[in-house]
Amino acid sequence: MIIQAHGLRKTFTTRSRKGVQTVEAVRGVDLDVEKGEIFGVLGPNGAGKTTTIRMLATLITPDAGTAVIAGHDLLKEPAAVRRRLGYVSQAGGVEDTVNARAQIMMAARIHGVADPGRATAEVLDRFGLTELADRPGRTLSGGQKRRVAIAIGLVHGPPLLFLDEPTTGLDPQNRANLWDRIRQLRESGTSVLLSTHYLDEADALCDRLMIVDHGLVVAEGTPADLKREVSGDVITLRTDQPGRAADTVKALARETRVDDDLLRVYVDDGEHALPGLLRALEEQGVALTSIALDRSTLDDVFLAKTGRTLRDAGAAA
Amino acid sequence: MIRHTVLFTGYELRKQFANPIWPLFGIMQPVLYLLMYAPLLRTMTPGGTTVDALRMFTPAAMMMIAVFGALFSGFGLIAELRDGTLERYAVSPAWRPAIVLGRVAKDMLVLVLQAVLVLVVAMAMGVRIGAVELVLVLLLMAATGLFASGLSQGLALTVRDENGMSQTLNLFMLPIMLLAGMFLPISFAPGWMQFLAPLNPLYHAVEAGRALFGGRLSDPSIPIAFAVFLGLAVLTTIWSMRSLRKIAG
């Protein structure tokens, strides 16, 4: 176990003209990450992902809770935790005016790496940055900058790497490229804790993940288990009478969910359930505008656990 | 601890000189002041020669670069606050004060370099200064720079916004300059300004600088200036290190 955290809580107090406001960012989070695992924290903006990661990274002191990270107590030995950690923040921490090589080298020196020159060359090569090593940060593209940020975080060879929203703002190609590189970390034995609000990212990258909402863990498991828990497939129907349609198909489904004129029907086997479902609706005289059959996603898991879709939750935050 | 401070000093110095054109511009400013302002001041100086004017103005120009060069160095921290670099240092094993001390040390080294250049120009224009006085002037300037740099880093970490920072600096700049008698001797000023001037720390630095350039080593303004600035420098440096702690937790 590389991270064992229990009961983490953090409340922020802000003073403004409107008076004192308190925000309970994290309200009791337990988290266990195995050695060598890629563990995801999935949730909408404002769910408490970044606060959780910042607490585990020794940046914020938790109000309550305990954690042992890479064998050291978070609260009693923060310095020892920092030595074993690679940390890539949401902002990245790549300076505009300094070239990649100098920034990576500096990080290696701060960590007291025995041969900072060699360690820098190695990590530059590993992230395909050798050609770009001497260009200042501002001339790099978003994807290149992210790679530099991760290279800085890895130059001292930490057993554990934190990635806070590593692909936010990247185009699909760069995201896919970064995913491959993060997967390669698993092969080198580095454990990864990453936060994301992208469902596909959590699904594609993580060995295990937890879904957080409003500072609480709402679900935890492997992506496959979580989806299986909800159901195999989702049939999405658009109709003028969603309520009546829901009553009609209730007996055939594991769960139904109405959202405006949309009816989501969760079934184990969509292909075989569909004909019977359509027949039942026909008999009750429910007219359909459209119909779609999909494999259930982590969004369906989120919907089942919180009553909102991740997209709605993100827009509201 | 010392290793990390040296490390950060070196990193900041390399950053500063990565593009040598900007430090060069920074050095040009006081030199231009000497070349263009000293002749202007000549008609008002007792004695009336350019050398007399320079003896008045060179120490003021040196303290000016010390204060205003270093006061602006905090802007770098705001950028690093935003791009996540400071956050990254905070999660590293870096000795926290070194992050700020490295910058302050860099500012002082750059200042001494600039001061030497100003002195060379002043000497070329006919000003003479003894060796002891020279060393004391440089030390005084370094102390002034230490104070201003610490203040700037602390201000940057507190204000955390370039716009707010530049407005704050601009607000204080003019009164501090005029009340130090940098451009015009404070003896020209009305009574209330003469009363306020000693409350301005920079006034003491300029007075001591003038005493040193005048060869008056026993002038009481010299120990006063050193006491004021070493005290203030300790305070602002501690403040800036504390401000960093707020961010790093």
From TrEMBL, chain B:
Keywords: Antibiotic resistance, Cell membrane, Membrane, Transmembrane, Transmembrane helix, Transport. Its main location: membrane. The keyword Amino-acid biosynthesis does not apply. The chain crosses the membrane at residues 21-40, 60-79, 108-129, 135-159, 171-193, 222-241. One of its GO terms (molecular function) is ABC-type transporter activity. Pfam families: ABC2_membrane. It is a multi-pass membrane protein. One of its GO terms (cellular component) is ATP-binding cassette (ABC) transporter complex. Belongs to the ABC-2 integral membrane protein family. This is Transport permease protein. It comes from Nonomuraea terrae.
